[in-house]
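Reagents: none. Just compute today. Very-long-chain (3R)-3-hydroxyacyl-CoA dehydratase.
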Amino acid sequence: MAAAGSGGSRADNGYGGQQARRRKGPGALATGYLVIYNVVMTAGWLVIAVGLVRAYLAKGSYHSLYYSIEKPLKFFQTGALLEVGIVPSSVVLTAFQVMSRVFLTWAVTHSVKEVQTEDSVLLFVVAWTITEIIRYSFYTFSLLNHLPYLIKWARYTLFIVLYPMGVSGELLTIYAALPFVRQSGLYSISLPNKYNFSFDYYTFLILVMISYIPIFPQLYFHMLHQRRKVLSHTEEHKKSE
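Predicted 3D structure written out:
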């Protein structure tokens, strides 16, 4: 689910979160690559944030701001595919979350032009942007073993608002795309054909929306559990000092 990324749900203490993880952490070369990757991604999402603010100040309205950040959004969201298998979270979970976001970026928002002016697009873009700036900053400082408490706190706190915000934007955008997909037959395959295979993209999008029902609560409450564990551990560590 794309939303999982929007709440920072790649639930882990980071590259340097646990002592055992540190001992099994990446080597010097891999660490260098990861630092560069995370710095670039942080900068990329900062570019998107600045683009949104500048467009808003220029237009005086939050409507249709998507066009001002369309290219960098596609580039850096697709670039997240490079982190599958290298971040310290579950490969399956990371791949699922990254692919769902890429799907929403390309197969919904890019493919169904009519939804690009919907306010719901701005809703998930803002949620993603704030989340990713925090998340990639978190990973960068964790790799350097200099993680400010404020960044750790933001990663494990702001998802409480950003996750539902992102989910709402994603669901509303898919819902807005449905009538246009049905009318155009986008990505659908009808019978008869030589492969004797049919696919209804409209139905597929409805199933994607339904999948949020069981997945969203599980990931959200998992992150709440992670928040209690990580931040309470930090408080105990401070007291012990």
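The CA atoms of residues 131 and 187 lie 31 Å apart.
Action item: order primers for follow-up constructs.
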